[in-house]
Amino acid sequence: MKTSSIFSRKPSLIESVIFIALLVLSGIMISPFLWMLSIGLERTANLQPPFPPTFFPKQPSFFNFELVMENATLFYSYLNSGFVAVCAVCLSVSSSLLAGYAFSKGQFRGKKILFMIVLGTMMIPMETRLIPLFTMFNKFGLINTYVPLIAPAILYGFGILLSKQYFDQLPDSLREAAQIDGSSEKRTFFQIYLPLTGPITATLAILSFLDSWNAFLWPLVVINDHALRTIPLFLASFSFENGTRLGGLTMALATASILPIVVVFLFLQKYIIRSIALSGLKGE
């Protein structure tokens, strides 16, 4: 009865205005992607990109996408990006959950100071860390390897913040009951708290995957070997060499490069809202 009354209620004027405004904003946000897809589907875009820009190709064809998919370099770039992203996700999610649990439930000296230092890392731009990081990895002979692309993910300040806020919402009574039963801290985390972290784990995985897959500046600095190029590096190289001369292929390649992100987000997007609702980031 209550459910039917909820669905039968007419939206107020303010709700309608908000809905229309959000619909317009979403259309503006998605329009570049629709234009990119339209250019990729335009068969003659390699000869002359359509002008003025249009969202409806005059001669729709999958010709550009077929050429892109036949490119072996793109396949290897996909493998490189996929390997780096999966490793970075595993590393960042694991370290964020462990650190978040320690900062939330742990009792040790200097906890607040260490947490402030972790938050401080979020305020340091990547550009200011390029030279020190490059010098460190170069000293160990790790340039042109996967290590510098994966290792920095171990310190994910925003992920640690989200994890701590999430663990703060979980009752301390679970830990106290486990301690009374003689459970170790390790067992308490892995067998009691970790199974409850599904939403925040999915959120961290999405955010970490996006960061790793879209990373451009850092891989550009540490990767010179074409065999190790990730998707953003391959796309930038292809676009720089061809420019607008092969606009259709460039846009088809750009569309193909974001497909994994779209797939991951569509499958896990519901966990983002759920984890934020439970993480206490509402300004309490």
| N- to C-terminal distance | 34 Å
What is the 3D form?
globular
Q: Report Rg.
A: 23 Å
What is the helix tally? 14
Taken in chain order, the helices and strands follow as: HHHHHHHHHHHHHH
- Low confidence ranges: 280-284
Average pLDDT, all residues: 82
The helix-and-strand class reads: mainly alpha
Share of helix among residues? over 70%
Main pleated-sheet profile: none
InterPro entries: MetI-like, MetI-like_sf
Pfam families: BPD_transp_1 (PF00528)
Protein name: Carbohydrate ABC transporter permease
Family: Belongs to the binding-protein-dependent transport system permease family.
Give keywords:
70% helix, 0% strand, 284 residues, mainly alpha
List the helices and strands and how they pair.
Blueprint: H1 2-8, H2 13-41, H3 63-69, H4 72-105, H5 111-121, H6 130-139, H7 147-150, H8 157-169, H9 173-180, H10 185-193, H11 198-214, H12 217-222, H13 231-242, H14 247-278
